[in-house]
Design brief:
By secondary structure, the chain is of the alpha/beta class. The chain contains 16 helices and 20 strands. The chain has helices at 5-15, 20-34, 76-94, 112-119, 135-141, 162-165, 185-201, 220-228, 237-248, 251-265, 276-295, 306-314, 319-328, 341-351, 452-457, 471-480, and strands spanning 48-55, 101-103, 107-109, 125-130, 147-152, 180-182, 205-209, 231-235, 270-272, 300-303, 332-334, 355-360, 367-372, 387-392, 397-403, 410-416, 422-432, 441-447, 463-467, 484-487. The strands form four sheets. Strands 1, 2, 3, 4, 5 and 6 form a six-stranded parallel sheet that branches. Strands 12-13-18-17-16-19 form a six-stranded antiparallel β-barrel. It has a four-stranded parallel sheet with strand order 8-7-10-11, sandwiched between helices. Helix 7 packs across helix 16. The longest helix is centred in the middle third of the chain and has 20 residues, at 276-295. It is elongated and about 90 Å long.
Length: 490
């Protein structure tokens, strides 16, 4: 069960409705009083609106002549039965979890004119069930402006003519061989989830407190805008510093934050190894960050100069705060690094789960260590993993979670090659949660596939990790936003 985007920001927006400083404090208090770790993980992504199209033509029998092509749909009754089958299959896909999918009623199309009318409807993508009909009809059914996925049957139902006839001749322009699925409902679901991720990445509004940057790639923010369509809302520290001062001086805000801290530290599996005031101030930051997101109607958040600026302003660190935001469903990233943020947003949407932005070690013997101080605890979107609440590593100050991911858990990674538009995707298995003298949340991960290739890809930049296997979804979605994808699977 998930909350929708409107529910997710409603409390914050309503709390800010009244004018003046008193109302701002009331707004922060309202955000804190609404914090509830038991609420369902929020589905902040827009549903992918899919228009299914059943393309067919009924051949007319002719005596002593070849009158039909391949394909088992030979009557209007058979066509009606097939459309009912399609509707039932789509209902199952809509209930499969992950990014929300909205399927419109199946549109029967037997002419280019009927196809043109379908393209006038409001939708994000065409799902074309290419049963029978000629090449002109096929091309008319494929969207000229939006993405199209083509599904054909061999064994999953009545065989389609285009199972045989589809070839690279037709897969040009917006179409690609990867846009074709034969029989496999799981593969189809992965592609639709990938499209949902790409659709949501385009036009994402993200608040960048302190402005954007790119680790070793100064052009990364501009690439994020131009290639991925991300709208970066830059917010300065001068105004934000005054907000922090006012919030920390308001007894109502600090009392509400203190109560949140006590509730958080009572959560099962939570061990406290820092000062309670750091946790409480982390909740003050949480309310302020959420307030910024609501003010700008944004869907994501990042902060620059976390250590050098946030610490003296807030008397804590942003580590726990960003984890709290991710745990409830809002993508939130440290370091304002727009090399990794587009990949993080896409992975968040295709997986339907939080992502962990982290540094990585040099790969050796299939193993790599992933570590940062801002890990989410709710990596499966449901349960809070055990965590030690300690200090941020480099400063030995503030509040940061050391999160324990269960050994044996499969995870998916994206590692961008700086801002070049090339991403590396791969999977791994968590083997342990060590306690090296590095960032607090840390996992030793066995890399699946041709791990030696990673040695040639190792770069001092960030990766993102998501729980489970969503590599196919990430690859398809990434390619839809113009990424050159590389993998290391066997």
């Amino acid at each position: 069960m998930t909350c929708n985007r409107r529910d997710f920001i409603q409390v914050s927006a309503a709390a800010m409705a009244a004018p003046g400083a008193r109302a701002e404090a009331a707004g922060l208090t309202g955000i804190l009083e609404a914090w509830d770790p038991s609420l369902p993980f929020a589905a902040v992504s827009r549903p992918l609106r899919v228009q299914p199209v059943f393309m067919y033509r009924i051949a007319q029998r002719r005596e002593r002549a070849s009158w039909k092509s391949w394909g088992a749909i030979l009557s209007e009754e058979a066509a009606r039965q097939e459309m009912a089958r399609i509707e039932g299959e789509l209902q199952l896909l809509a209930k499969a979890g992950g990014p929300p999918l909205e399927f419109l009623p199946v549109a029967p199309v037997s002419s280019p004119e009927a196809a043109a009318r379908v393209h006038e409807r409001e939708h994000d993508a065409i799902l074309l069930y290419a049963c029978t009909g000629g090449g002109q009809l096929l091309q008319a059914c494929c969207s000229p402006r939006r993405d199209t996925v083509i599904f054909v049957r061999q064994r999953s139902g009545p065989v389609y003519y285009w199972y045989e006839a589809l070839s690279s001749r037709y897969l040009t322009g917006r179409l690609h061989p990867d846009d074709v699925v034969v029989d496999d409902a799981g593969e189809l679901l992965a592609k639709l989830r990938g499209l949902a991720g790409a659709s949501n990445l385009r036009g994402t509004k993200i608040v960048a407190l302190g402005g954007p940057m790119g680790k070793y790639s100064p052009d990364a923010p501009e690439v994020a805008r131009s290639r991925y369509g991300i709208e970066i809302i830059e917010t300065g520290y001068d105004a934000f510093g005054k907000r922090i001062q006012a919030a920390l001086a308001d007894a109502r805000v600090t009392a509400a934050a203190g109560e949140c801290a006590r509730r958080y530290l009572r959560m099962p599996g939570t061990t406290m190894r820092t000062e309670t005031s750091f946790v409480a101030n982390g909740f003050v930051l949480y309310a302020l960050f959420k307030q910024l997101v609501a003010e700008h109607g944004a869907q994501a958040f990042t902060v620059k100069d976390c250590m050098s600026t946030i610490i003296p302003m807030s008397s804590t660190t942003a580590c726990l705060t960003l984890g709290l935001m991710n745990d409830e469903g809002l993508p939130a990233f440290c370091e304002s690094d727009f090399v990794i943020i587009p990949a993080g947003i896409l992975l968040r949407y295709v997986s339907g789960l939080p992502v962990f932005l982290h540094n990585s070690s040099f790969p050796h013997k299939r193993m790599v260590t992933c570590a940062h101080c801002t890990a989410p605890r709710r990596m499966n979107g449901r349960d809070y993993f055990p965590a030690i609440i300690t200090t941020h590593y480099e400063s030995e100050y503030g509040a940061a979670p050391k999160v324990e991911i269960p050994p044996g858990q499969q995870v998916t990674f994206i590692d961008p090659e700086y801002a070049t538009g090339r991403w590396l995707g791969f999977k791994g298995i968590v083997r342990g949660n060590p306690s090296y003298e590095i960032c607090r949340s840390q996992q030793d991960v066995e890399i699946l596939g041709k791990w030696e290739l990673l040695k040639h890809e190792a770069r001092d930049s960030h990766w993102v990790m998501a729980y489970g296997d969503c590599l196919a979804e990430a690859e398809y979605g990434a390619r839809k936003v113009g990424v050159r994808w590389s993998g290391i699977a066997d």
